[in-house]
Amino acid sequence: MDTWMRLMANDGSIVFGRVENGYLHEYEGLDQPVPTGAVLSLRALTPLAPCAPGKVVALWNNFHALARKLEKPVPDHPLFLIKPAESVIGSGETILRPAHYAGKIVFEGELGIVIGKRCRNASLEEAQAAIFGYTVVNDVTAAGLLAENPHFPQWCRAKGFDTFCCLGPAIVSGFDWRDASVVTLLDGVERQNYPLDDMVFTPAQQVSLISQDLTLEAGDVIACGTSLGVGSIGEGATVEVTIEGIGTLANTLHSPVAARQTQSEDARVV
Q1: Where is the Fumarylacetoacetase-like C-terminal domain (predicted)?
Q2: Which CATH number fits the domain that encloses residue 230?
């Protein structure tokens, strides 16, 4: 397995590469995995979301256990929505509560599939080959908005706010998802612990079937859906989603005012 990260250098430039023994071996990019020859210390770099997707395809009802609890039939085709690129943040960044929304905000710990090359109408074999690697996702939702309008379920709005798609801390290629689990902690208390082999659609099936509907580009992410244990996040609470073999994604929820105060305090400390 190889671990890949995307980071910011002191001059503001963004670098991507394979991580080994505290150093980043720089590559041209996720879509062009060619080494540049540069080797950089991680201590001089600031971690970012491990990729910059043009879109995040987020699945619903993709785990048998949750389908049974909700008394929903498993689908014949992946059920999905699109989260915009602007919703993506990395591990350690703040989830911002929308200023005009006071309702419940929900976490969903998930596996993320990172696409490595353009994929359209792909067979299962082509879909598998198009997977660059896997990351960790927290698919955040303003749950109170979903049914706010009785005439139109607002999935994209409820899940598409800026900062509502947490990705990271890394991408791992060669990762065997079949023996892995998603573990989600809320302020240190376990809320989710479910096996990934309970998925309705495997990663290759997801990529193949979704590519029949829309073109997947290098860097795009498919969030594989969540299972039992979804819950709400309170002000100042921290959600940690761990998939052993990939890492831990940690993000804290704040209102915009609280977030600005925290940033000001951090600046004074520096």
Answers
A1: 55-253
A2: 3.90.850.10
CB contact at 8 A, 58 and 216:
no
CATH number of the domain enclosing 41? 2.30.30
Quote the CA–CA distance of 196 and 179 in Å, as a whole number. Answer: 7
3-state secondary structure of 164: coil
Spatial CA neighbour of 167 closest among 243, 78, 228:
243
pLDDT in tens, 159-196: 999 999 999 999 999 999 999 999 999 999 999 999 99
Residues 96, 82: contact at Cβ < 8 Å? Answer: no
Residue 259 belongs to domain spanning: 55-269
pLDDT in tens, 122-166: 999 999 999 999 999 999 999 999 999 999 999 999 999 999 999
C-alpha distances (whole Å) from 85 to each of 111, 154, 160 are: 18, 18, 9
